[in-house]
Amino acid sequence: MNPVGASNTVARHSLPGPLAPMRASALAICLLAPLVVTSCTHLRGRAPSSPTALHESSPKIRLLNTKIFGHSADDAVVLLQPNDGSKVDPEYVLTDIKGGRYYAATVAYPTTLTVDAVRASINEVYGKYELRDLDGVWRNTDEQFTIGLNTDADGIHVMYITFQPAQEVFKNMLKAGVFGPFSDRPGEPSQ
């Protein structure tokens, strides 16, 4: 039970890197999707062709260049896919580095776009990887990364994260407070 004015969401500053804009529930879905999908046979099927086809007047977005994943942070990389001048550029791109290599990114788009337009742009490239039972999640098993779509008052966020070992996912979720308050020492109560 929360005190008056309290929230079930985790403070943005307490979440790691590109996951900061997400609510705890969206974070859990995004991070657990690879585990759930490999464990549940009813989720293994691919989504049928996207029903959210872009209208000619709908804006298209410039997506992250996922080829950066695995590259050294010392390498010169191109963060975004090519733009023919007709696509909306993101407001900002945040990248996460682990072990000196790119492994995750958050791409933020303006609030002037609609979630449907962003989803349709993602589906133009990754539509066959959209999980029909998880709204706003794509799991690219060929290139080993997951995409999560989230929206809030600050805009639309597209999060990309490479597949991680299950133990590390749960450790990060505990630190982020997804399962409740986190204590560094076993047996010691959390604040």
Question: If you had to describe this structure to a student in words, what would you say it looks like?
Answer:
The strands form two sheets. A five-stranded antiparallel β-sheet has the order 3-4-7-6-5, with helices on both faces. The chain is built from three helices and seven strands. Helix 1 runs antiparallel to helix 3. The protein has one domain (16-176). Helix content is 20%, strand content 21%. The radius of gyration is 17 Å and the shape is globular. The chain is of the alpha+beta class and 191 residues long.
Task: Give a quick rundown of the structure.
The chain is α+β, with helices and mostly antiparallel strands and 191 residues long. The chain has helices at residues 24-39, 115-126, 166-176; strands at 60-61, 87-88, 92-98, 101-109, 137-140, 145-152, 155-162. The protein is built from three helices and seven strands, in the order αββββαβββα.
Query: How many domains in all?
Result: 1
**Structural class, judged by helices and strands?**
alpha+beta
Number of distinct beta strands: 7
Beta-strand proportion: 15-25%
Overall pLDDT score = 77
Largest sheet: 5 strands, antiparallel
Helix segment count? 3
Q: Helix amount, in percent? A: 10-25%
Task: Identify low-pLDDT runs.
Answer: 1-15, 35-54
* Rg result: 17 Å
Strand order of the largest sheet: 3-4-7-6-5
Shape: globular
Q: What order do the helices and strands follow?
A: HEEEEHEEEH
Question: What distance separates the N and C termini?
Answer: 15 Å
